[in-house]
């Protein structure tokens, strides 16, 4: 019973967040100086008469007040219709579906790599504070923590694709090939650099937070007691450290799903990777309101689920977080 | 079993302008622990009792300056030997309950202690279960997390962790602090039982009254120095057989005795 109540409250809160995200995104789009009809027509703008423009505006409902437009969109959303993207001339749900399939591979592998490597490095560095290994890992973490993802992406592109020629310069497959003809190896080959970029930057935060928690643990009464039992440093790191350090790492890694989405927008742009991030930029630049709102909603949902997962897992690791049922 | 001769310990502190100075926290401490005995070290806070415990186990962080001689079973107890014997021959019952890992169930923690003392994993788990039963913790407490245990139960988990190590020397740092009389007696009885098995128990406490019923010898410490080592039997009546004024004054100041402030005690307070 209590479980259902908690679940219902969470769901209600999620719905509220969604509406807020949609309203804010919609408001921002209304304030955008880009005219959606101009953006849609592109270079053919000059060949279209004002009457035809009015026709398009009427068809898309642009001459109604913004609140009514938003109402329309919300009404459709409740029926499960996200509208049609005029940039891609496809239903928004289809665009998101296709793009997400590509992005999830990129985001998923980057996220997994970030979490695992970041955590491992943090544990190793924190277990031996002040050692040479710790200095190397910390230096790396501080450097990459202050590096913007897109800049690193350009550097990597320059090094590996231009100078060394090891990796392709762009896209999810060779240009001029249909996506269903691209083999798995080629796909992975095109993924390496974007994943590397996202992971290299993301690792730093997790490493630094894990390291701090590990150092705190190694100086705590728990560690002193374990030393008194004859435990070695690695024994303590393995048995106590991993449990304690996984708490901040988990929160960070699941909360960083949002950041990863943000980072992927820039990185997909640099690598011309046809994922959700690239679609976001296209939708923004060409005032494709339905698509942008759809992506915003989808991202918000994704991040919220991530946070929900973190909340749930936290209680599993730290028994003190569990609600006491009398 | 363990002999401490002229142990002096200095720890650094920093004066203005990052000048490192050394504070003498233990000066010329000499003690002798015998198997089968509970030896109480009594002193006010800041007397250096816990530091003594940590120095015996080699748990103090660098930098430190330590002189004097520690001998365990007739062999010099060097830092390397301390590392080797910790958890196997030397065990610590820590002062603070947050020495228990809050994320680990009690039986698992005890089994880790057994594992660290050299038991194989499967044996360690069994030994942990037996030790916890021995200290009257039921199945539910064995599978409980430390925050679900009462202070007395958590304290007994700590004693069980020392018990499974089969150590010959057990250093109990304020094991009775913060417990109600019944729980306190249970923990102290457990220590006395360990001594009856032929182990040496170093009982660190600030309360002379709690130490006397189970201790054979009592050492009074004050500001890093040993004031006096006496048999527990000397603390009776007016304490006339006690050698030093400080010991006599402390004994007479207890509520059960005269609750008295003797001229010597006053003089010492002024000093």
UniProtKB/TrEMBL annotation, chain A:
Signal peptide: none
Name the UniProt record assigns to this protein: Peptide/nickel transport system permease protein
InterPro entries hit by this protein: MetI-like, MetI-like_sf
PROSITE patterns reported for this sequence: ABC_TM1
Family the UniProt entry places it in: Belongs to the binding-protein-dependent transport system permease family. OppBC subfamily.
Any one Gene Ontology BP term: transmembrane transport
A single GO cellular-component term on record: plasma membrane
Domain (ABC transmembrane type-1): residue spans on this chain: 100-314
Source species, domain of life: Bacteria
TM annotation in the entry: 12-31, 104-127, 139-166, 188-208, 249-271, 291-317
Organism this protein belongs to: Vreelandella subterranea
Membrane topology according to the record: Multi-pass membrane protein
Gene3D superfamilies on file: MetI-like
This protein's UniProt keywords: Cell membrane, Membrane, Transmembrane, Transmembrane helix, Transport
Lineage: Bacteria, Pseudomonadati, Pseudomonadota, Gammaproteobacteria, Oceanospirillales
Pfam families referenced in this protein's UniProt entry, alphabetically: BPD_transp_1
Localization annotation: Cell membrane
CDD domains documented for this protein: TM_PBP2
From TrEMBL, chain B:
Entries under SUPFAM superfamilies matching the protein: P-loop containing nucleoside triphosphate hydrolases
Compartment(s) where it occurs, according to its Swiss-Prot or TrEMBL record: Cell inner membrane
Cellular compartments per GO CC: plasma membrane
Domain ABC transporter, chain residue ranges per copy: 2-248
Domain of life: Bacteria
Pfam family, one: ABC_tran
GO MF terms held by the record: ATP binding; ATP hydrolysis activity
Lipid bilayer topology: Peripheral membrane protein
Keywords: ATP-binding, Cell membrane, Membrane, Nucleotide-binding, Transport
Keyword tRNA processing appears in the UniProt entry: no
Family per record: Belongs to the ABC transporter superfamily.
Name the record gives this protein: Peptide/nickel transport system ATP-binding protein
Organism name: Vreelandella subterranea
Taxonomic lineage from the root: Bacteria, Pseudomonadati, Pseudomonadota, Gammaproteobacteria, Oceanospirillales
């Amino acid at each position: 019973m209590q479980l259902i109540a908690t679940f219902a409250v969470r769901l209600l809160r999620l719905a509220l967040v969604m509406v807020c995200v949609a309203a804010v995104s919609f408001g921002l789009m209304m304030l955008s100086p880009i005219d959606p009809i101009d953006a849609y027509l592109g270079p053919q703008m000059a060949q279209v008469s004002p009457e035809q423009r009015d026709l398009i505006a009427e068809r898309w409902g642009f001459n109604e007040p913004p609140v009514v437009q938003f109402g329309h969109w919300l009404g459709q959303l409740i029926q499960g219709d996200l509208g049609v993207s005029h940039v891609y001339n496809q239903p928004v749900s289809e665009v998101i579906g296709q793009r997400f399939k590509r992005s999830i591979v990129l985001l998923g592998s980057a996220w997994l790599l970030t979490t695992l490597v970041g955590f491992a490095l943090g544990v190793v560095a924190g277990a031996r504070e002040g050692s040479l290994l710790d200095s190397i890992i910390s230096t790396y973490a501080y450097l990459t923590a202050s590096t913007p993802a897109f800049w690193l992406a350009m550097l990597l592109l320059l090094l590996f694709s231009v100078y060394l020629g090891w990796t392709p310069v762009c896209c999810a497959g060779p240009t001029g090939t249909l996506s269903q003809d691209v083999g798995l190896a080629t796909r992975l080959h095109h993924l390496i650099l974007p994943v590397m970029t996202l992971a290299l930057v993301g690792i730093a935060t997790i490493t630094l937070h894990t390291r701090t928690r590990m150092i705190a643990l190694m100086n705590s009464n728990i560690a002193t007691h374990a030393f008194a039992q004859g435990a070695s440093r690695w024994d303590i790191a393995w048995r106590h450290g991993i449990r304690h350090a996984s708490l901040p790492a988990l929160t960070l890694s699941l909360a960083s799903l949002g950041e990863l989405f943000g980072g992927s927008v820039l990185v997909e742009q640099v690598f011309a990777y046809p994922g959700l991030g690239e679609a976001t930029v296209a939708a923004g630049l060409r005032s494709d309101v339905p698509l942008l709102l759809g992506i915003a909603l989808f991202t918000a949902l994704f991040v919220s689920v991530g946070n929900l997962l973190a909340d749930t897992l936290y209680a599993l690791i730290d028994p003190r977080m569990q609600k006491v049922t009398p | 079993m363990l002999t401490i001769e002229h142990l002096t310990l200095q720890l650094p502190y920093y004066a203005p302008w990052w000048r490192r100075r050394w504070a003498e926290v233990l000066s010329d401490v000499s003690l002798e622990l015998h198997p089968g005995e509970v030896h109480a070290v009594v002193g006010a806070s800041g007397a250096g009792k816990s530091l003594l415990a940590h120095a015996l186990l080699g748990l103090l962080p660098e930098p430190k300056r330590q002189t004097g001689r520690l001998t365990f079973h007739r062999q010099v107890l060097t830092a390397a030997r301390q590392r080797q014997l910790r958890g196997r021959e030397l065990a610590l019952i820590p002062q603070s309950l947050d020495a228990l890992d809050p994320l680990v169930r009690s039986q698992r923690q005890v089994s880790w202690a057994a594992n660290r003392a050299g038991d194989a994993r499967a044996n360690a788990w069994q030994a942990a279960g037996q030790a916890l039963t021995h200290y009257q913790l039921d199945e539910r407490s064995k599978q409980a997390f430390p925050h679900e245990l009462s202070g007395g139960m958590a304290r007994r988990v700590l004693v069980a962790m020392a018990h499974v190590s089969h150590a010959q020397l057990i250093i109990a740092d304020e094991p009775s602090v913060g417990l109600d009389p019944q729980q306190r007696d249970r923990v102290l009885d457990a220590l006395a039982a360990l001594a009856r098995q032929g182990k040496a128990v170093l009982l660190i406490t600030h309360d002379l009254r709690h130490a006397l019923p189970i201790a054979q010898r009592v050492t009074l410490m004050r500001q890093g120095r040993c004031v006096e080592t006496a048999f527990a039997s000397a603390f009776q009546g007016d304490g006339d057989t006690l050698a030093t004024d400080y010991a006599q004054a402390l004994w007479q100041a207890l509520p059960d005795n005269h609750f008295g402030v003797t001229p010597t005690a006053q003089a010492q307070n002024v000093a």
